[in-house]
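Deliverable D5.2: sample structural annotation.
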Amino acid sequence: MRSRVTMVLAVAAVLLGGVLLVPTAYARLADGSSGGGGGGAASTVAAPAPTPPPPPTLAAGPVSVSFKGEFFSWALMDRQTGKISGSPNMTSTSSTESMIKAWIVSDYLRQLGDREPPAALKEASRLAIIDSNDGAANKVHSAAGGSYRASTSSTPDAVIQRAIKICGLTDTKRGNVKPYTGYWSFTRMSPRDAVRLGDCIADGKAAGPKWTKWVLDQMSKVRGTTAAKDQRPTYGGGRWGIIDGLPKSITAQGPVSMKNGWTPIAYDGNWHVNCLAVNGKWSLAVMLRYPIRSGLDYGAQVCASVATQLVTPQPGAALKVPQQPVGKL
């Protein structure tokens, strides 16, 4: 009797244990905690946030300008790689006009080393850049060792020779237009050499360690427009051209240093207009000759158009978001 009772109790215990175990196992399967493979519920991976594109800059690309004139050429240097791109004629030359003043000032200050220039010459250096003042530039040119001696020689004066040597210019030469032979403003330079000059000023070779920041700062403060009120016979407003073609997304990254050159030349009936701008990433030059009747604004607009077309990425370009696969855990 006792053994039968014992057996009945044992069977009951097994059945009761089974009833209690089933809900526990079910709960384990329901919450996905089972150790078995492939038994869990499907889960998805959220796509990562898109990587923001690099900030806009100027980069090599096609440029199309409906230009009416004798000479149109441009060049762009990527200052990170040193690569120069530009128009097919970027090695052809034109007169520098006031664009060369940035070099004249740099050359003078570099020769001083750590010394301060006389106050009058420092002020002349400032005015030569921010107002493109001819009289001030002449004083600095002379102090730097330049000369206006008329000559039939094709050799540039000492100031320009140093630009060729220090900045690695290959197309630059002395102007040979009589009676202006030897004048710094008639130095012949290509856009390819102009962007090299901009890079040379920005990287410190031109003005040296003490004065480079000062020169670039003055170049970023160039003032005045193409309007008649800002233009005078021996100085004038030079803040136009490339700077007007740059979007705020570039100018907000830091100062853009610039030096333009512009003169209506009687002997050939053309405006000679040059635009040079440089920042930490690039150096851009546009050089033009076109009929005087077209006006200074025409050249300024061409320079701006070239800059705008080289902006990369172009404003409003769609941001491509990489698609991420959706999978299971």
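Annotation notes: Residues 2-30 form the longest helix (29 residues). The longest strand covers residues 282-291.
The annotation will be released with the project's public dataset once the embargo ends.
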